[in-house]
Amino acid sequence: MGSPAPRRQFLPREFIAPLLDGAAARLPLLDAPDLPWALAEAVHDPAFLARWRDGRVTRIEERALGFAWSPAVVERGLGSSGATLAATRDALSVGLGVNLGGGTHHAHAGHAEGFSFLNDVAISARWLLDSGQASRILILDLDVHQGNGTAAIFAREERVLTVSVHAQNNYPFRKEVSDLDIPLPDGTGDAAYLNALDREVAPVVAAFAPDFVYYLAGADVLEGDQLGKLALSPAGVRRRDDRVLRWAARAGLPTVTVMAGGYNRDPHALIAARLGTLDAALGAFGCAASPAGPA
What we know:
By secondary structure, this protein is an alpha/beta fold. The protein has one domain (15-285): Arginase, Chain A (3-Layer(aba) Sandwich), CATH 3.40.800. It has ten helices and six strands, in the order H-H-H-H-H-E-H-E-H-E-E-H-E-H-E-H. It has a six-stranded parallel beta sheet, with helices on both faces. The longest helix has 24 residues, at 71-94. The two termini are 25 Å apart.
């Protein structure tokens, strides 16, 4: 079922309100509806979903996920995926959509792992393709961990370009094959990371010519992250976000930003990085997107 999930340190409860307050000060904060199960079944094995809905999972599966099963795990998956779908609709309407959660990129079609039950971005990307509202989708995954579930789900889908820039010596320890994988060494830092985006990612993306973008803006690349190893500075993370989002805006590409991972030892640093990503998105697109609430 994949490598054991790392231990997770959540943002302390007392810091959730400041994060939401900071987001709400920038633009309206909306709750998203739960994802319809039928859309999840377009990506995930229906038998897998049925077992998880009913709680018929094994200890091995729980260990791979990183959580014990509970109804809240299922509800969180539906909420996170519903928020990304709502953000996708926002992007089609005004150019930008934001989910303050999301990015559960370790979920495979038939099993959960790495804190990921449903693959929210894969579900929304599949909905775009099936509904004919996009034909060439870029999934740019800049979380510190490889987006292995997403890579596996779209391994044979030529209309989706999966790109993952991640720490080489990090979870998942058995990687899948994305369309473009950029594994980076521990302690990479700002200059080498941004150089990889410019020299290795940009030409491949330009050649693909997407008409829709999903951006997983993981804050776990930030120095001090408990599960990250790339050690970007706060300024480096902001330059990363600006590069990606300004490019997408200049190209006129509808873009969804999801926040993905972040487990910093300093909750204030994590909040600042999250709000910095939101500022970068709003600054690039200059539109009144409405980020979906916490999933």
